[in-house]
Amino acid sequence: MQRVSRFTMVAGVMLALVVWLCSPISAGAGDYIYNGIIPLEEIYETLGVPYDPGQPDCKYRKKCPNPQDFELLLELEMNFVEESADLPAFYQVTGVLFPEIRFELRLLPKHEWNRKFYLAGCGGFCGGVDTNFPNGQFTNNLNWGLLRGYAAATTDSGHDNMGLGRTYADWALDNRPGEVDWGFRSIHEVTRVSKALICVFYGRKARYSYFAGCSTGGRQAIVEALRFPKDFDGVISGAPALDYTGLVATWMSWVVQGVGDNVFSAEDQAAIQEAILDQCDDLDGKADGLISDPRRCPEIDFSGADLSPDQLAALEQLYSKPVNSWEDILYEGVIPYGSEIYWPIWVPGADGTSENPLALQLIRGFNDGFLKYMAFEVDDPTFTADDFDFDSTPDLLEFMGRIYNATDTNLKRFKQLGGKILMYHGWADSIVPPIYTLDYYDRVVAAMGGVRRTQRFFRLFMVPGMDHCSTAQSLEFVGAGTSIGLDDFDALGALERWVEKGIAPRRLKASGKSLSGEEITRFLRPYSPDGGCKYSSGK
Hints:
- The chain is of the alpha/beta class.
- 34% of the residues lie in helices and 14% in strands.
- It has helices spanning 2-21, 40-46, 58-63, 142-146, 176-202, 216-227, 244-259, 266-280, 309-318, 343-346, 362-373, 398-404, 412-416, 434-448, 451-455, 471-477, 491-501; strands at 73-81, 90-97, 101-107, 116-120, 151-155, 208-214, 234-238, 420-426, 458-463, 485-488, 508-513, 519-524, 535-537.
- A nine-stranded mixed β-sheet has the order 1-2-3-5-4-6-7-8-9, with helices on both faces. The protein has a four-stranded antiparallel β-sheet with strand order 10-11-12-13, with no helix packed on it.
- Helix 5 crosses helix 6.
- It is globular, with a radius of gyration of 25 Å.
């Protein structure tokens, strides 16, 4: 009698569960009611998937995220793109999320999908759904995932910005929702809807989800790990602009003020570079024009560079950390020794050279736009770097810093969920100082209980000679720049092995060019606060 009663109770519970799972989403009081702008039937139809209005989400609920993930969709289209010389055939899904977050999701035919999701970050102030990249470039490139069998997506982060190098920021004038979307919300919302669309299209969830981004995209990776630790199994964070207010407002104002009206000609830059390499290049045992750890360099003597006193004073400020009147360090970052070949791209006052003829000087553009439209709680479109007071202005950055910055070191929840972080930074990065990334990693190690515990889920690789996110590689592709350094390595493959097989990356094989143009290969080792940066020969 007792056994029958127990069986009856279990059967009743199972029946109730089945009834709930297969009940229409608009059924009785207390049930979830779909409130999306686009009807579910239309979403399914757009994706070419049959929709049963009688039992709209029985199968869907068991296998996929909640239909709530579609509620912010304002627009959705899908087109088929034929195979090209560079890419396989794919379904191009484009959409808009409330209020203005545009995204693109590329879906391979079902038999070619690897059952994984890849979201690419964006650079600078973002503002475009960037989908066309040079072959082989992995920075913020959704096609890097598509070519490996992923369902791959990217986003404009919630606004339009087609300015040079994504430096225009007037979209943010009196636009707090747009700033929040750029700061943290857009990546999470695009992740939610992409996963839901993937599940409807393929009829199953993605087994693994990865995010990869550099610069702002590198910051987005850590924002995801901190704010939304369930979104991704692993993230790649390249040259991360973590303390965005400290970087783009404080440090860049320090650089702009320090350079002043000085101009460094191509000859000046060559003399500066020669002085540094003569005194620092062979400290790693290789005279190849790549400085493996600029922190080991002595104080450089520029007396033979034939520079003016004003130029020497400007150099001193470029190679030093910003401070206030009390000598408090305001940002842990400097222009690194060994980055001089890339100065025309980034540094104010640097003329074009034979290696990089375009004098873009993007630091000035980023700094100016950020100060005018993004740095302060109340925008001041008249504010410039000359108005930045290193004693008082940094305090005014705190409000927006809470929206943008990814400086928190408490990654415990991401670690507990099994998440993995692979971070990299080029030693020749002259717009996002690599010294700050080392400082952040050191603080994470302290917060997470030591190197060994931290490296179980978070590893940092420093890359000799690499520019900011291989930007020079992009310019080289269009014939406007020269790229050196070890900027070719497979971060995604290393992360996949770590997440899916538990094989932590003990080294990354990196290849590239020396300053003389020689093809070189080295193995990058994980950075450790107590062991520094280590490399080994690729031969």
